[in-house]
Design a protein that fits this description.
Blueprint (H helix, E strand, L loop, with lengths): L2 E7 L7 H15 L3 E7 L8 H12 L6 E5 H4 L4 H5 L5 E5 L11 H15 L4 E4 L2 H10 L7 E3 L17 E6 L8 H9 L6 E6 L6 H13 L6 E5 L3 H10 L2 E3 L9 H8 L4 E4 L4 H4 L5 E4 L4 H12 L2 H14 L6 H16 L1
Helix pairs in contact: 1-14, 7-8, 7-12
């Protein structure tokens, strides 16, 4: 294999887990001495305009000859079968989670995405999922045979242990403000815990879904939590590290995760986790370090958080278990090596 081309839609620098994964795959591939061509595709996926599709086709066809083409699932599952066949080269799909499992879709959009992704994945020489849970979904619901299917877990860098705030207890939630992350459910749960001494920081972009952001701000104000719940917007680097360091408990109300990179980051910082059981989360977070509740269960989330707020001993035990577990998390060179092995096999 002379190298590979990695096609990614939209702005690769956006601070999301999926784009963070893609950035590290490129960096680690190059660090391993492999030629990696980043093919920047237009935004608009998974619902591209005809013009964006035409531009996508042109950019994919312009990728260096002889290179296997790895395509991020945000675009791959939305590409027409005819376009993919016309590329006339080995194709590998990288699937963070099936497109139809995003919240906020209507039934017609969901049905169309399922059909589109099934047809597209049928044309892939190999499919790489970012978790065993997502791999099981692709095999069960999308017709991807086990022989074409691999898993490359996201890596996690070693992190310093969080020092916390303590008084008041600092809760941290990370995720773009979109319906799937269910920050509104978190706010409802927090309203039921108003008698406890806590503050909450919700870190994530607020410009992806204006209506969801409006509803979230409205809910915060309606419950009188404006001085306790802060929307920080998207943060990276030292600013994000500061949020982890100051946190006492990590919480996620997400309805579904294809893996949950923010969760493993929390574990790497030695934080106890309160989250839902949506998607891959039970595979990502060990029971000894977490309290998991059903997705969209406001009362359950409040009870899970309350159990740690009222019991310092249990909170500290879960934090220690998180810190101990973090040493077993895969690193990014291993993630890249897994992907490179698949690409080399396809290139034969």
């Amino acid at each position: 294999m002379t190298g590979f081309a990695f096609a990614i839609p939209g702005d690769i620098d956006l601070p999301t887990g999926g784009y963070g994964y893609d950035r590290r795959v490129i960096a680690e591939g190059r660090r391993a001495g492999v030629e990696v061509t980043h093919v920047a595709l237009p935004g608009g996926f998974p619902f591209p305009t005809p013009q964006q599709l035409a531009e996508t086709e042109a950019r994919l066809k312009a990728a260096p000859a002889g290179q296997v083409l790895l395509i991020d699932g945000l675009a791959f599952g939305a590409l027409p079968a005819g376009l993919l066949r016309g590329l006339a080269r080995p194709l590998v799909a990288l699937v963070h989670h099936p497109l139809a499992l995003e919240e906020g879709l209507d039934e017609m959009q969901r049905t169309c995405l399922i059909a589109s992704e099934r047809a597209a994945l049928a044309l892939a020489s190999a499919v790489i999922a970012t978790s065993p849970s997502t791999a099981r979904l692709l095999e069960r619901d999308y017709g991807v045979e086990a022989g074409r299917l691999g898993v490359a877990l996201p890596g996690t860098d070693p992190r310093p242990r969080a020092r916390g705030t303590g008084t008041p207890m600092r809760l941290l939630s990370i995720g773009t403000v979109i319906p799937r992350k269910a920050h509104g459910v978190l706010v409802e749960a927090l309203a039921a815990l108003a008698s406890f001494d806590w503050t909450c920081r919700i870190v994530g972009a607020t410009d992806r879904d204006a209506e969801e952001t409006r509803r979230l701000r409205q809910a915060i104000m309606a419950h009188g939590l404006g001085d306790r719940v802060t929307l920080t917007g998207a943060l990276q680097g030292e600013a994000l590290e500061h949020e982890f360091d100051a946190a006492d408990i990590f919480v996620s109300a997400s309805l579904f995760e294809g893996y949950g990179m923010a969760l493993t980051e929390a574990l790497a910082h030695g934080l106890p986790v309160v989250a839902t059981s949506g998607g891959a989360i039970p595979d990502t977070v060990p029971p000894a370090a977490s309290v998991l509740v059903a997705p969209n269960d406001t009362a359950g989330l409040a009870e899970g958080l309350g159990s740690l707020l009222r019991d310092p001993g249990r909170r500290k035990a879960l934090a220690q278990n998180a810190w101990d577990y973090a040493v077993s998390l895969p690193d990014w060179p291993r993630t890249a090596a897994t992907i490179l092995a698949v690409l080399r096999e396809v290139a034969r």
